[in-house]
What does this fold into?
Amino acid sequence: MSGRLAVIGLGPGDARWLTPEAEASLTAAEAVYGYGAYLDRVPTRLGQERHSSDNREEGARAAAALRHAAQGANVAVVSGGDPGVFAMAAAVCAEIEAGPQAWRALDIAIVPGITAMLAVAARVGAPLGHDFCALSLSDNLKPWELIERRLDAAAGAGFVIALYNPVSRARPWQLGAAFDRLGRLLPSLTPVIFGRAIGRGDERVEVTTLGAANLVAADMATLVIIGSVETRIVAREGRTPLVYTPREFARASL
Amino acid sequence: MSGRLAVIGLGPGDARWLTPEAEASLTAAEAVYGYGAYLDRVPTRLGQERHSSDNREEGARAAAALRHAAQGANVAVVSGGDPGVFAMAAAVCAEIEAGPQAWRALDIAIVPGITAMLAVAARVGAPLGHDFCALSLSDNLKPWELIERRLDAAAGAGFVIALYNPVSRARPWQLGAAFDRLGRLLPSLTPVIFGRAIGRGDERVEVTTLGAANLVAADMATLVIIGSVETRIVAREGRTPLVYTPREFARASL
It folds into this structure.
């Protein structure tokens, strides 16, 4: 079995964040599978096949790429950000587990990338500078009660929280419900960052607080970071404020 | 004030993970500050100053770099991995907050990188494929009781846990204490990954379980990932098993 499947992280959309490993893997691939918006970011190469599919078809896309690789081809699946964080690598692993034994003999490579929370954090300072968690707010594949329990646990123990998938057309109320819930556990002055389309032309970054946040601005391309009681805002004249979470624990609020 | 300070993530040690943005920022810098082992990874450039300092001197290093930038220079501070995750970006922000007003007028750029947990996860599949947290096990700057509380909260709510700084010469018992504690909350067959020096010549990756883990192998260069009850191991003949956390919540253990 000589087939190879690379699951490649493209980073958050700026070509300057595409790693050399990701670029080399893309160049070597005979076929590239992905959601259309991600495929559009990959420079076309003569003779390389393209297989575009819808955002929601992760399992089918992973299976199609595995079937192709099992024929002996060098195949790539592309993800925005890092493929291992709420993205295609888990879908590929799940298909391998459920699929024919031959898929376990394939050469599988996961090529890491800059995940959205790192790019958003970098734009404002270091809000993820100490203990933090990453939580998908989508209740398509898990019960909302579990999301509530995780929000409570994370905020209660002082983790900074990065929210992936905060809003979609089919999930309009979840972000508001999450903020209501966090508002009961955290001070209203807790720093909050909305980072939208980081590294792309329509990038937008907003630093606000839990009490003052305007959730209407959040959409599918937004990542939200909610600070802990330790997180600090440093005002700067004429510039976006810095937001950071110190490595040193200073509060008596244990 | 024309000074610029870039805080640059070098990634976990393989040059193929250094982003084009990081490379360009390094090339443009007149002076580079960093821990010696990280500076050693930066190719020397004629006329570029180097300022090496010890691993523990983050605050002093950040202040020295800020003073230099405030003289109008283009200065870089380098971090392994991502500078915003348990690294130099928070130290730089803290010095700016505490320092002279002029430092707030500097052009500060945080250049993200592949943080260790993404590289370790990529080597084995997608253990961070769903909700997870990143926790530093160092009790140098926070009380051990807070670490215990965060371990309990994370494991209790079903987050996968990435442990940074699991062991050092001065902190020999903390990892064992953390595993004992997690062993009370999680099944002994919970998947565990030890990833050491990923992307470097002496890289080592081990997939084991909470009950069978041999902690003696962990050192300062190790990152540990502890799965949730959802995390799965997929055996592969002649290859490292795949480890992944499905996006779909399957258990009734809410």
The longest strand of chain A covers residues 4-9. Chain A touches chain B through 81 residues (CB under 8 Å).
